[in-house]
Design brief:
The chain has about 400 residues and is an alpha/beta fold. It is built from 12 helices and 13 strands. It has 2 domains: about 140 residues, Aspartate Aminotransferase, domain 1, CATH 3.90.1150; about 240 residues, Aspartate Aminotransferase, domain 2, CATH 3.40.640.10. The structure holds pyridoxal-5'-phosphate. Keywords: Aminotransferase, Pyridoxal phosphate, Transferase.
């Protein structure tokens, strides 16, 4: 095994020294070794990939679909995505020039920010939030402006956005993620329209991470791109809707002029996504089977959500309106105070249930826990009874 030449020490990219490794992963790794622990930590569907999708990947391999594709993804997949966006959300994008298939939503996030940001640019990120946005913005030398939304039911209100814009001066972009990881809260069409009214007269770019758009339990998902098509990049993918996290298929859609730059960055980062994964995503986005598979999973998530919601309420937690994704963001019962990390650590060690401390998701998350219900009902039942016992015995 090679030992690094000591003369290289301290000569890595200095900008990365301010970036901490994900404390979610660290916490998860720490508690995973506890014997018999039930984990509600991961944002990952526990379902298998639907059979028709797996077969499409197998066929691609057996049919020698093994050559470079266009960097923005196969034409047939971009057409399926255009159909999906139009069918579900009434969004119109030209598959030839306005859609790029990425390696998961993660690469979509990186390529979008890289396309827009210069060092020093400011990006508004409502919190609590999925931590990757802040990290990527920092990696690019730009400045995350974290806006605590805990006083406004975990949504960025037009007033809060206006106030932030006045306070911060020039801002390059606004990141919105709904339904939200970690809160499960989403925005309805009226809330988005009201936000759009503030954004439209400005030169703000909007990056809308809608990766959980198919997992909305009451009402229908609306996209801010409906109201701001000329300044929005819509990010989505197959990871959550089709339990395809390991296949790594995401996408970005936006105005052609902007997509030219996003696609250029994307092509330099990854060349293109992998062919079998793209083949599997075609029926995911473009067929009735793909749609039905999501609906079946959604029904199971909803039952689990309702069960956990009731169990947590009985134990004295208040839960943020959980209308989407597969997370509950639960406020600790008053007797436990605000130290979510101490609570989560004790719950893991003494109660054998792993959840993520809310403060790991940024300002406004203190005093909360994030629980993922993307796990079996048996696990949830066991977790619920252990949480109830833990709370009662402290
Ligand atoms: C809000 C949000 N965006 C993006 C991602 C990353 O998705 P992918 O696995 O498709 O890269 C996640 C994964 O947990 C997420 O929660």
């Amino acid at each position: 095994m090679p030992k690094m030449n000591p003369a290289l020490r301290g000569r890595f990219n200095h900008d990365l020294t301010s970036i901490a490794p994900s404390n979610i992963r660290t916490f998860d790794a720490e508690v995973s070794s506890i014997k018999g622990i039930v984990k509600l930590t991961l944002g990952e569907p526990d379902f298998n990939v639907p059979t028709a999708l797996k077969n499409a990947a197998i066929q691609a391999i057996e049919g020698n679909d093994s050559h470079y594709t266009p960097s923005v993804g196969t034409a047939v997949l971009r057409e399926a995505i255009a159909h999906f966006l139009s069918d579900r959300y009434d969004l119109t994008y030209d598959p030839a020039t306005e859609i790029a298939v990425t390696v998961g939503a993660t690469e979509a996030i990186f390529a979008s920010f890289e396309a827009l940001l210069n060092p020093g640019d400011k990006v508004i990120i409502p919190t609590p939030t999925f931590p990757l946005y802040e990290t990527v913005v920092q990696m690019l030398g730009a400045t995350p402006v974290l806006v605590d939304t805990s006083a406004t039911d975990f949504v960025l209100t037009p007033a809060l956005l206006e106030e932030t814009l006045v306070k911060e001066g020039p801002v390059k972009a606004l990141l919105l993620n709904y339904p939200s990881n970690p809160t499960g809260v989403t925005y309805d069409a009226t809330q988005l329209q009201d936000l759009a009214a503030v954004i439209e007269p400005t030169d703000l770019f909007v990056i809308a991470d809608e990766i959980y758009s198919e997992l909305i339990y009451s009402g229908h998902h609306a996209s801010i791109a409906t109201y701001l098509p000329g300044q929005t990049l819509v990010l989505n993918g197959a990871s959550k809707s089709h339990a395809m996290t390991g296949y790594r298929i995401g996408f970005v859609a936006g105005p052609a002029e902007l997509m030219k730059v996003v696609s250029m960055v994307h092509s330099m980062l990854v060349t293109s996504p992998s062919n079998p994964a793209m083949a599997a995503a075609v029926p995911a986005f473009g067929s009735e089977e793909g749609r039905q598979a999501t609906l079946t999973m959604k029904q199971a998530y909803q039952e689990r959500r309702d069960f956990m919601l009731q169990a947590l309420s009985q134990a004295g937690f208040k839960v943020a309106s959980p209308n989407g994704a597969f997370y509950l963001f639960a406020k600790l019962p008053t007797k436990f105070g605000q130290d979510d990390e101490a609570f989560a650590t004790a719950l893991a060690k003494e109660g054998a249930v792993a959840v993520i401390p809310g403060s790991f998701f940024g300002p406004g998350g203190e005093g909360y826990l994030r629980l993922s219900y993307a796990t079996s009902m048996d696990n949830l039942k066991l977790a619920a009874s252990r949480i109830q016992d833990f709370v009662a015995s402290h």
